[in-house]
Amino acid sequence: MGWISLSILSSSEEAEKLSDALFELGALSVSIEDAHAGTEQEQPLFNEPGEAVDSLWNHSRVLALLPEDSDAEAWVNALVEGLGWDHVPSYTAEKVEEQDWVRLTQSQFDPIRISDRLWITPTWHEAPGEGTVNLWLDPGLAFGTGSHPTTRLCLEWLDKHLVPGTEVLDYGCGSGILAIAAKKLGAGSVIGVDIDPQAMIASNDNAAQNQVEISFYLPDAAPERQFALVVANILTNPLRTLAPLLSGATEVGGKIVLSGILVEQVSLVQEAYAPWFDLVLEDQREGWACLSGTRLR
């Protein structure tokens, strides 16, 4: 058994129409990606939570998985007729053989090195070395498995600067990776907060998998207290809005680490936290920045 993979080049205006039409015709799955992904013409799209996406990529590729006995040309002709188009889009089709997808997927993911001692290790791998600190997390989770530059920046900061016994708040904890890293690097009590109920499930599962005790809360249920270290890997606009809350959660003399910030937005975040912190650029990577500072007032 196998499938047919159909790839159609389209404009941003046509991509969503094609996606909907493919599903109506019986496609098993449909996705839209940048037609120039992996090249110098790749077009990054950045949107803050709650903002509408104005458009897709100017040059998009619509990918559809079709039943094995499908005639790709007939599918494309049916799309053109159904959409009332007077042109046939450029497309390619290829046979996809059945495979052991679990084993194939696992083979594509190796441990991620954060430092000589800190690694993110899939559960099916052995630890990369004796004495290493391993965050046992599997790919496929929502944002927060260590591959994104903002997550790595925060992990590197924790690895270099976390003082054992420090009480930590991870605000916007997602998969719980930063909270888990802090605990495994020697933090005292650690609390994670996120607005997404699914994050509570993922974080608790990951903490259990890593055999660490961390308390995770939705914002309204989180205890009102201060911490020696607050970490927040979110995005610029939420970080600016949360400035009074996160600053208030940091004890005087305590530290804050912020990421999810585009380099060109650093000054906006520094300005929002200026009443409490003199934030400095700790590091940057691939257009993303990590800020840190000590609460002075």
From TrEMBL:
Matching Gene3D superfamilies: Vaccinia Virus protein VP39
Any single biological process term in GO: methylation
Alphabetized GO MF terms: methyltransferase activity; transaminase activity
Enzyme class: transferase
SUPFAM superfamilies from the UniProt entry: S-adenosyl-L-methionine-dependent methyltransferases
Domain of life of the native organism: Bacteria
Annotated Gene Ontology cellular component terms: ribosome
Signal peptide: none
CDD domains listed in its UniProt record: AdoMet_MTases
Places the protein is found: Cytoplasm
UniProt-listed Enzyme Commission number(s): 2.1.1.-
Chief location bin: cytoplasm
Keyword list, A-Z: Aminotransferase, Cytoplasm, Methyltransferase, Ribonucleoprotein, Ribosomal protein, S-adenosyl-L-methionine, Transferase
Residues that, per the record, bind S-adenosyl-L-methionine: 151, 172, 194, 233
Reactions listed under catalytic activity: L-lysyl-[protein] + 3 S-adenosyl-L-methionine = N(6),N(6),N(6)-trimethyl-L-lysyl-[protein] + 3 S-adenosyl-L-homocysteine + 3 H(+)
Family that this chain belongs to: Belongs to the methyltransferase superfamily. PrmA family.
NCBIfam families, per the entry: prmA
Reported function: Methylates ribosomal protein L11.
Protein name according to UniProt: Ribosomal protein L11 methyltransferase
Native organism: Leeia speluncae
